[in-house]
Request: fold
Amino acid sequence: MKKEDKGIIIEKITETLKEYACFYLVETAGLNAEKTSALRRACAKADIKLLVVKNTLLHKALENMEGDYSELYEALKGSTSLMCANVGNAPAKLLKDFIKKDDTLPRLKAAYVEETVYMGADQLDALAAIKSKNELIADVVALLQSPAKNVISALTSGGTKLHGILETLSKKEG
Reply:
């Protein structure tokens, strides 16, 4: 491969990484054609970009980006597929579903999610448990609404009780 071609590919990988909020480094070399196609289809449905990359080119692309990705460099051995997504836990959930069917591959090598590096396949459960931005916003809204609902509930039920007591007392007097 010519040096100019490598430069273009590195630039494309860098642009792709900048487009997405997180990325996973995955071992997929042992998948047969059928399983690879199934993985690609599943990624497309989940809005995950799947790329097979050369480790040296990905290494250069990571060096071109802002931030420190040096922890990931040790995972750049063997064949590497890059899974890019905007939802941090989406690739982990997809990988877990895939592994349920065939526990050999794909295998998580490393992930970069929410400015944190996760190394090794044993991190898959932790990654799948990460809540997305929308899930966190929904949790915060629910927490904020809960006290207000309790106050309104107490006021309306108390008002009904008070009204009932006053009505009973007025009927007794009459």
